[in-house]
Write a structure and sequence with these properties.
heterotrimer; A mainly alpha; B alpha+beta; C mainly alpha; B: Rossmann fold; 2 domains; 6-stranded mixed beta sheet; elongated; C: MetI-like fold; 15 helices; 76% helix; flat
């Protein structure tokens, strides 16, 4: 075995080089960037070191809007999508006929290009000179007042945003929860039935504790995923998210880096570091809560 | 509470869709389980005994037939209204609850006028725990206990709501040999103390024999024999029952009836008055061979296994169908081991005759 | 009231509850199935309507009696959709193949080879799993730009290198594969060595075939990821002939087919969505299995 010492490193070499170049170095570098004041892209020099980039970003109304949007998306879509996915998974697990067909249909959004399908959502929700759009016509049919969901008031845009996000993230959650539910030993349910346990009690006292590890896994990854929301927004509102007032933190990072207002990697870095800090905090809180409530 | 099964039948659609059709798991059960007895449902795996148990518990609905608890029909009654306790093969203890919480769980489910105050629930749970002697373990979680302890918790949980009928699905199969012996005594004791009609399922004939008041022997969904343990052993109704019970297993020979005598490989070995001439399947219990220098049955000795109190004699015989025909003899009667041939006399009570086609028992007169 | 009568009532109530419960379950499931399928139906429907028919419908019709393929012709001629397709296909294939080679070697080193510092390196690898891509993409952009691997600086080939370089390794997949490799019994390795098999031979003749399910999982996830990748290609690509489908669709959204030609747009969307959906319908079981083992999206 001694001889394979060099061999081991040789096998690892490609991975180490790539990860070093595109993960480790940038990881350190992003903190450096975020601290370099007045960095110039062309000359690649900075005027000094400090926290100016952070204070700039934190005072930038676009960034504050992005933070607000991101938090709204997170707070609305994570609980709703997880709860709804649980409901669907419970329904799926209670049937045998057509179960596979439903599962296949529900999984479809996972394998579609979210930018492409986002375009369809935009068409369905938007109002143009030619038509009020599918959804508005439906609303009017039920006596409601139509509204332009894509170019109209903030809450309408946020509604489409959240709806589409849930539509996109649901397949994964349904899949995980369905298999989590299916893996609960049927004997537990039989035992509970013999004891005359009501449906609600079976759910609260048996199902929920049994799938709680998977549920928490979904909530944690759900939070992380929702904080990184970006391309779904682009799909619905176009690349100029600041103008639409629908930018997210990740969107802000990219806009700072590139886009029309781009070319400021320092600001982008500061924003990215802030995002990372937020996600890290939330994940830690999640883990602490799960440690207290997940039983095994 | 007596349990009556009338023409009970359960058919499942075949799982293999290519073959299609139906599998009959329980075929026309028609018998009565008397009140306050311990009944063993015995059969090889896949014979439908667990299905039968699930029909009685109400987890499955029968395709045909009826189930009565006492005088009341419960065939379509949901399980929770039947008042049964069920102990699962893998115990199905809720892993996230403590022992006490597990035992209290069924009582907490009671609704309406049956609802119990908290103290009463705790008191009764502790009483049940005491009955199965796990008072010390109430705060543990299932994962922190041995298989035998988990089994007791499962029984306590089934007993705590004072069921009319207690059902046990392979209660001992997950325990090691020593615990199995201990736990089966425990089940017997608990059943005697509570007097609850108890039905348990097993594929282990020794287990069934040792504690049951009555054994129901099943194969392929059909009941073969219902009788007390000793009777099932001494007086099997067919070849399957004879083969399934007893260790070491019964020895099977190809024989022939001729003029009221039993011939094995052409030699007359026993008088069987009144049996029609023709081929026979002959089952001889290992203890039915009596060493006797003048005995009519000559066998060639293959091997002698010393077991202490008894000796097991493995031999060859041209008419034997069993691969290792074996006689159990008292140690002081054992052959020295260097003879080529030894002779036996047969104990007529230990020799059972069967029709080789139908495998049904044929009884000589007198 | 005797017991038998009350039993009969309980039975009846239980039956009624069961039937209503089942009915509601199916209604709910069908409802959401329609919600999922409707956008797909709508994009196919719209893509088959002629532009003039579409624009004249103030209230959109739910069917069309005169389906036309003209939008598909338009989608392929007005924008280089075929080109986007080819780019994405090449990008997906090359990225997946190279990544597989990199991660198989690394996973093998972690699972089977012994060398100094292995545990330390592995721990560092695991730590890297927590780093979000958003944090490192900034420097990567600068690195690639500085190295002249974007398409406003370098050649098509250099741009392609810039495109794939950051995504041809993955800590998570190395971890997934290593766990699977480690399950292969040690005795197999010893037996192979005794039989004169080299390390590399053992890896490709024994390990990889045994761990095929995991490798298939990784391939599936990577292909889906590549087909949908948007952010990085957008950052380093400016020339239209280098676009991937996601960039293409975004550009179609921004600038449209001249005037706002929705049917043509939908035709493009259909064309882009079809390959993955077909792939999914064919390998449905494998894909769902793979995603539930290693997916994270959402």
């Amino acid at each position: 075995m001694k001889k394979s010492g060099a061999k081991g490193w040789l096998y690892l070499l490609p991975a180490i080089v790539l990860l070093g170049l595109f993960m480790v170095y940038p990881l350190i570098d992003v903190f450096v960037y975020s601290a370099e004041e007045g960095y110039n892209f062309v000359t690649q020099t900075a005027k000094g070191i400090g926290l100016y980039n952070y204070s700039y970003v934190l005072r930038d109304p676009y960034f504050l809007q992005a933070v607000k949007n991101t938090f709204i998306i997170v707070i609305i879509t994570v609980p709703l999508s997880t709860g709804f996915a649980l409901l669907i998974a419970l329904a799926l697990n209670s049937i045998t006929k057509l179960k596979e067909l439903f599962q296949t249909v529900y999984f479809l959004p996972y394998v579609t290009n979210t930018l492409a399908v986002g375009l369809v959502f935009m068409i369905l929700f938007r109002r143009t000179a030619y038509t009020d759009g599918m959804i508005n016509l439906l609303i009017q049919l039920f006596g409601g007042q139509g509204v332009d969901f894509i170019d109209g008031p903030y809450w309408a845009k946020m509604f489409v945003m959240c709806f589409y996000t849930i539509w996109v993230v649901l397949p994964f959650k349904v899949l995980i929860l369905t298999s989590a539910l299916a893996s609960v030993n049927q004997d537990y349910y039989n035992a509970a039935r013999i004891d005359g346990t009501s449906k609600g009690r079976i759910f609260r006292r048996i199902t929920l504790p049994m799938i709680s590890p998977m549920l928490f896994y979904l909530i944690i990854t759900g939070f992380i995923g929702a904080f990184k929301a970006y391309s779904d927004e682009v799909a619905l509102f176009g690349t100029n998210l600041n103008e639409a007032g629908m930018n997210t933190i990740v969107g802000y990072v990219y806009d700072m880096l590139y886009g029309s207002a781009g070319g400021y990697p320092s600001y982008a870095s500061a924003a990215a570091v802030i995002l990372f800090a937020i996600v890290l905090t939330i994940t830690c809180v999640n883990l602490m809560v799960s440690r207290k409530t997940v039983h095994y | 509470m007596k349990v009556v099964l009338k023409n009970l039948t359960k058919r499942f659609p075949n799982r293999n869709k290519k073959i299609g059709g139906e599998v009959i798991a329980v075929d026309n059960f028609d018998f009565e389980i008397p009140d306050g007895k311990l009944i063993g449902l015995l059969g090889p795996s896949g014979c439908g005994k667990s299905t039968a148990l699930n029909l009685i518990s109400g987890l499955l609905e029968p395709t045909e037939g009826q189930i009565f608890f006492g005088e009341d029909e419960v065939t379509k009654l949901p399980p929770e209204n039947r008042g049964v306790g069920l102990v699962f093969q893998n115990y199905a203890l809720y892993p996230h609850m403590t022992v006490l919480q597990n035992i209290m769980f069924p009582l907490q489910n009671l609704k309406g006028d049956k609802k119990l105050p908290k103290e009463e629930i705790v008191r009764r749970a502790k009483e049940a725990a005491h009955l199965v002697q796990i008072d010390q373990l109430l705060e543990r979680k299932p994962a922190e206990m041995s298989g035998g302890q988990q089994q007791r918790v499962a029984i306590a949980r089934a007993l705590v709501k004072m069921p009319k009928v207690l059902l046990l699905d392979e209660p001992l199969s997950n325990l090691d040999a020593r615990l199995r012996l201990q736990t089966r005594e425990e089940i017997r004791r608990i059943q005697k103390e509570t007097g609850i009609t108890t039905i348990f399922v097993t594929h282990d004939q020794e287990e069934a024999m040792s504690i049951s008041d009555l054994i129901v022997v099943m194969k392929d969904g059909a009941v073969h024999q219902i009788a007390p343990p000793q009777e099932v052993y001494d007086d099997p109704v067919d070849l399957f029952v004879a083969k399934f019970l007893g260790t070491p297993a019964i020895n099977v020979f190809r024989g022939e009836a001729k003029g009221g005598r039993l011939l094995l490989a052409g030699e007359a070995v026993l008088d069987i008055p009144g049996v029609k001439d023709g081929p026979l399947a002959v089952g001889i219990r290992p203890e039915g061979f009596k060493p006797d220098p003048q005995g009519p049955l000559a066998v060639s000795l293959r091997n002698v296994e010393v077991m202490g109190r008894d000796t097991s004699v493995v031999f060859d015989h041209p008419a034997a169908e069993s691969e290792n025909p074996r006689a159990i003899v008292a140690s002081d009667e054992r052959p020295a081991g260097h003879e080529k041939t030894i002779r036996f006399r047969l104990d007529p009570k230990k020799v059972h005759l069967f029709d080789p086609e139908t495998e049904k028992r044929i009884r000589p007169e007198g | 009231m005797n017991t038998q009568e009350s039993y009969a009532r309980i039975e009846k109530a239980a039956r009624a509850r069961k039937i209503t419960g089942r009915t509601f379950t199916y209604i709910f499931l069908v409802f959401w199935a329609l919600m999922v399928l409707f956008p797909f139906y709508w994009m196919i429907l719209t893509s088959l309507k002629s532009t003039s028919a579409y624009n004249s419908e103030f209230v959109p019709k739910f069917f069309t009696l005169a389906p036309t393929m003209e939008n598909y012709a338009e989608a392929f001629t007005a924008v280089p959709l075929g080109r986007y397709f080819l780019n994405t296909l090449i990008f997906t294939l090359v990225t997946t193949v190279i990544m597989l080679a990199v991660i198989v070697l690394a996973a093998y080193a972690f699972a089977r080879l012994d060398f100094k510092g292995k545990n330390l390196v592995f721990t560092l690898f695991l730590a890297l799993m927590m780093i979000p891509g958003e944090l490192v993409i900034i420097t990567n952009y600068v690195t690639v730009k500085t190295a002249g691997l974007t398409d406003d600086g370098g050649s098509a080939l250099r741009h392609f290198a810039g495109l794939i370089l950051p995504s041809i390794t993955s800590v998570f997949y190395i971890y997934l594969l290593r766990e699977n490799f480690a399950q292969v019994p040690d005795d197999l390795y010893k037996a192979a060595r005794v039989d004169g098999c080299t390390d590399l031979g053992f890896l490709f003749k024994v390990m990889v075939p045994i761990c095929r399910p995991t490798i298939v999982t990784v391939v599936i996830l990577k292909v889906i990821e590549c087909w949908n990748s948007y952010v990085w290609p957008r950052l380093i690509t400016t020339k239209q002939e280098h676009f991937l489908v996601s960039n293409g669709i975004q550009q179609i959204r921004e600038s449209g087919f001249g005037r706002d030609n929705v049917p043509a747009m939908m035709a493009a969307v259909v064309v882009i969505s079809v390959p993955l959906i077909v792939l999914f319908l064919v390998f449905r079981k494998k894909i769902m299995e793979g995603v539930s083992r290693g997916g994270t999206k959402g």
